[in-house]
Amino acid sequence: MKDAVIPKCSAVKLITRNPARIMGLSYKGEIKIGCYADIVIFEDDVNIKGVIHQGEVVEYSKFL
User: Fold this and answer.
1) What is the pTM of this model?
2) CA distances in angstroms from 12 to 59, 61, 62, listed in the order given
3) I need a labelling partner for 53 at 20 to 30 A (CA). Which of 2, 20, 38, 61 fits?
4) R_g (Cα) of the chain, nearest Å
5) d(CA 22, CA 47)
6) Run of H or E including 53
């Protein structure tokens, strides 16, 4: 993402919140009260450091 034309914040919205809204999943795509706590934590732009699924830290390899 270093060479991205848009800010990272905008890119994250494009790949999280917007698709969730298009699919009618109002409880996904954002970090806020009432949303599912599914979060991927990146070490850098591409390496996964951890996953939080339904509010619990889980072994991320089961999602790959």
Assistant:
1) 0.56
2) 23, 22, 23
3) 2
4) 13
5) 27
6) strand 48-53
pLDDT per position as a tens digit, 15-53: 888 888 999 998 888 888 988 878 888 888 778 888 888
Give the C-alpha separation, 16 to 29, whole Å: 5
| Of residues 19, 43, 25, 16, the one with CA closest to residue 51 | 43
Domains of the chain, residue spans: 8-63
**What distance in Å separates the CA atoms of residue 60 and residue 49, rounded to the nearest whole number?**
8
What's the number of CA atoms in the CB half-sphere (13 Å) around residue 49? 5
Contact by Cβ (8 Å): 26, 20: yes
